[in-house]
Amino acid sequence: MKSFTLGPAAAAAGARRPMGGRPVRLAAAAVAATASLVLAACGSSGGGSGSSPSPSTSASSGALTVADVAPFSGPDAALGPTYLASCYGATSVINAHGGVDGHSLNCKSVDTRGDPADAVPAVNQLYASTPNLALVIGCTSDEAASVVPIINAHKTAMFCMTGQSEFDHVHFPYFYRLVPPDLEEAYALVAIAQKLGYKRIALAFGNDIGSQAFVGPAIAALKKAGITMTTNQTLDESANTFRTEAEAIVSSHPQAVMTEALGTADPTLLSEIKQLNGGKMIPVIGTSALISPAFFKAAAAAVGAPTLAANFHADNLVTETSGPAYNAFKSALLSQQGKVPGVTGNFTTYLSAPGGVHLYDGINLAALAMLMSKSTTPSVYAPDIIKIGDGVPGATVCPSFVACAALLKQGKAIRYEGPGGPTSFDAYHDSTGLFQIDTYSASGAVNVVGNITTAQLRALSG
After folding, report:
1. Per-residue confidence band for 165, with pLDDT thresholds at 50, 70 and 90
2. Helices 401-409/324-334 angle, 10° precision
3. Which domain holds residue 21?
4. How far apart are CA 183 and CA 188, in angstroms?
5. CA angle in degrees (0–180, nearest 5) for 2-433-10
6. Is 246 in the same domain as 373?
7. Average pLDDT, the chain
8. Residues 312 and 332 in one domain
């Protein structure tokens, strides 16, 4: 893998939000209204919890809980386990070095099923059953618009994996985001098509909230780039065949298919496209969600690992692939392989999963903020997250929880720079990074083959 360690200039350029956010089902005003409505509901336990605590989680022992609020079932079921693996990795190191303020940290999964209707009662049940909740991670685009107001009303710090535009302009004091808006990722997909010289692109996105959010911006960016959209297919992620959609794609003669459809949808579609296209796979440009062990395993089985490797590109956030921060992350994550309930597969692929990388950073930022403030109460420690991430004049840069904690104990100001690179939070607690282009090897290893600059993204914006 090529190493990308961001310098100060690159970090400053990449951490801005030059383009708005992504259009989603709820408007920003609706989210603000929802925030006022959930205050009365937060005390209710709601419906089924959809959660399963780590075996070692115990309120009586003084342990604190990090809740992974994300899909563990349904079409987007691969997301929750990716985040849970990083949670186990980060907390194992924190606990091995004394925990925070006399407390250990444990991880708890809360299954939203990728549906707001299931996510709200699951989160309400989380609060009803978890008095020692210290941090929430996850909250993907599938459910963030519904659950962030609830979490915020409970004054719980959260690091969310959502690119929704609501959070570009509505301030939630306990909300933090280390990933870019999906509008920018849609532009990154088109930038990859430009780099590869493609002039005809088919779109095939799942019918879930998160996947559909890419479609509008991608269509606009393709037009601006002078690339023809041959067809736009919406995939029902609950279906077991996409023959009709595959026929439409093949008959439109694209040079590549731009896609995100999680679960078994994309692998099934790719298999059917290959069958209908005389045994030849049409190249794929995927979102960062397709950089995961689950996708590679399923897609490789569907079309063949060598074929997939030769015909696949995806955007991804630039993360470090060497150096002290990466080495600490790698050691922490791989130490938990085989130990995370319900999470299987080769953890090596998780090293390049942007959600896993940035939520590992989020957990470390929160834990260090607890140490700095000498408090595990989010209303007390949350403001120090930005101080530790962005640093203050004279702060010492440190690459891991262990290194940063040692400096804090010496009374020094710190700036944490983990494997996700340096942060630069704005007024809405957003800190975004730069994009890279990834491919797979035939063994499933993720290879970095290029970067996408801020200037290239701006050129594709409306």
Report:
1. confident
2. 110
3. 8-181+323-390
4. 9
5. 70
6. no
7. 86
8. no
Indicate the residue among 390, 414, 448 that finishes a domain. 390
Tell me how far the alpha carbon of residue 159 is from its chain's centroid.
Answer: 10
Tell me if 412 is assigned to some domain.
no
Domain boundary among 360, 390, 420: 390
pTM, two decimal places:
0.71
Per DSSP, what are the bridge partners of residue 259?
A: 204, 286
Per-residue pLDDT reduced to its tens digit, 28-76: 333 333 333 333 333 333 333 333 333 333 333 489 999 999 999 988 8
Residues 168 and 36 in one domain: yes
Residue 233: phi and psi, rounded to 5, are -110, 130
Residue 341 and residue 257 share a domain: no
Element (H, E) at 259: strand 256-260
Strand partners, 316: 436
171 domain-assigned = yes
Least confident of 201-215, 236-250, 341-355: 341-355
Q: Which residues contact 379 (CB under 8 A, 6 or more apart)?
A: 155
The SS3 call for residue 161 is coil
pLDDT tens, 441-456? Answer: 999 999 999 999 878 9
Q: Is 346:293 a contact under the CB 8 Å cutoff?
A: yes
Q: In this structure, are 53 and 90 located in the same domain?
A: yes
CATH assignment of the domain containing 267: 3.40.50.2300
User: From CA 265, how far away is CA 370, in angstroms rounded?
Assistant: 41
Question: Is residue 409 a part of any domain in this protein?
Answer: no
In Å, how far are 123, 155, 249, 313 from 42, measured between CA atoms?
A: 9, 11, 46, 43
pLDDT tens digits, one per residue of 195-225: 999 999 999 999 988 899 899 999 999 999 9
The pLDDT, as a whole number, for residue 462 is: 63
SS3 48: coil
